[in-house]
Amino acid sequence: MCPPQPDQGLPPPLAAVPVPWKSTDPCQGHRESPGALVETSAGEEAQGQEGPAATQLDVLRLRSSSMEIREKGSEFLKEELHRAQKELKLKDEECERLSKVREQLEQELEELTASLFEEAHKMVREANMKQAASEKQLKEARGKIDMLQAEVTALKTLVITSTPASPNRELHPQLLSPTKAGPRKGHSRHKSTSSTLCPAVCPAAGHTLTPDREGKEVDTILFAEFQAWREAPTLDKTCPFLERVHREDVGPCLDFTMQELSTLVRAAVEDNTLTIEPVASQTLPAVKVAEIECSSTNTCALSGLTRTCRHRIRLGDSESHYYISPSSRARITAVCNFFTYIRYIQQGLVRQDAEPMFWEIMRLRKEMSLAKLGFFPQEA
């Protein structure tokens, strides 16, 4: 009989295992020969020898694959480490560069702050100096304005109430008789020689000039030059009127022996910067004065002659003083009076007709001529 078929899901039959066994199947019609058994035994031995070799081969393959994986992982890690080190080095260099930039910016900021503070202090100091100078100039200007206002007020009173033709004797004490005027010190102004004008027809003026009591007659050329100057009064020495006065009167009157000092005196008179001061009392100490005074009280600095000097002059803002004799003082004063009068005319402070103004100028020219010749008023 045939053996029953195994059910599905059961383990395989023993016949599937390659082990030798002896069949007891009654259906088997013949028995296995001894040669077949020998072959079976040999095959089993061969199979037994091939199993350990395959296992060793598999182990070798697994070891080689694991080593390859380990080597590749090690190379990858080394590359990552090298890349990380390179990035870290770049970041360190960037940090160092930024640190240097920060230090440079901090240094520049400190220098800028220091320069700004220094500039601010400098500006404040300059502003304080300018303010002090401005206050000083303002104070001086106010003093000059007050002085000029007083002078203008006195001049207006003089011009309104007195003219060369009819002077106001109350405003001019020097015109009074000696018994009424009394003793005086300083300058003595001479009476104007232009009480009336001589009859003459001036071509430039176009009107008749009346004679004065002394029989003086106006020079038509001089009057024409004065009229032209009066239309546009100026202190420029190139105009014909002033050029003649400078050549004929001012220059000779201020021509002293000491030529260098004479030039300085003439420039100071023309610029209205000369000051005449009376000499102080001899009882005052003269220790510091000797350092700035350029002459003695017994020698005139302009003429060089031995004279008793009761006045001294100062040029501009200089601290140097020069002692002058009465004759030199009279010559300088005559020129100063002339320039003062023409400055008043230029500023519009003299409200007179052309004829009285002309004769006043002629009187001032006469004083310069007399002073040049050595005539000067004696001081009381």
TrEMBL record:
Report the record's Gene Ontology biological process terms.
Answer: exocytosis; protein transport
Question: What residues does the GDP/GTP exchange factor Sec2 N-terminal domain cover?
Answer: 73-157
Q: Which UniProt keywords apply?
A: Coiled coil, Guanine-nucleotide releasing factor, Phosphoprotein, Protein transport, Transport
Q: Where is the composition biased (Pro residues)?
A: 1-15
Q: Does the keyword ATP-binding apply?
A: no
**Where in this chain does the entry annotate a coiled-coil region?**
74-158
Q: GO: which molecular function terms?
A: guanyl-nucleotide exchange factor activity
Residue span of region Disordered: 1-55, 164-196
What InterPro entries does UniProt report for this protein, alphabetically? Answer: RAB3IL/RAB3IP/Sec2 (IPR040351), Sec2_N (IPR009449)
The keyword Flavoprotein is assigned to this record = no
| GO cellular component terms, semicolon-separated | Golgi to plasma membrane transport vesicle
Q: Compositional bias (Basic residues) spans? A: 182-192
**Similarity section:** Belongs to the SEC2 family.
PANTHER family found in the cross-reference section: GUANINE NUCLEOTIDE EXCHANGE FACTOR FOR RAB-3A, RABIN3-RELATED
Write the protein's name.
Answer: GDP/GTP exchange factor Sec2 N-terminal domain-containing protein
- The organism named in the record is Colobus angolensis palliatus (Peters' Angolan colobus)
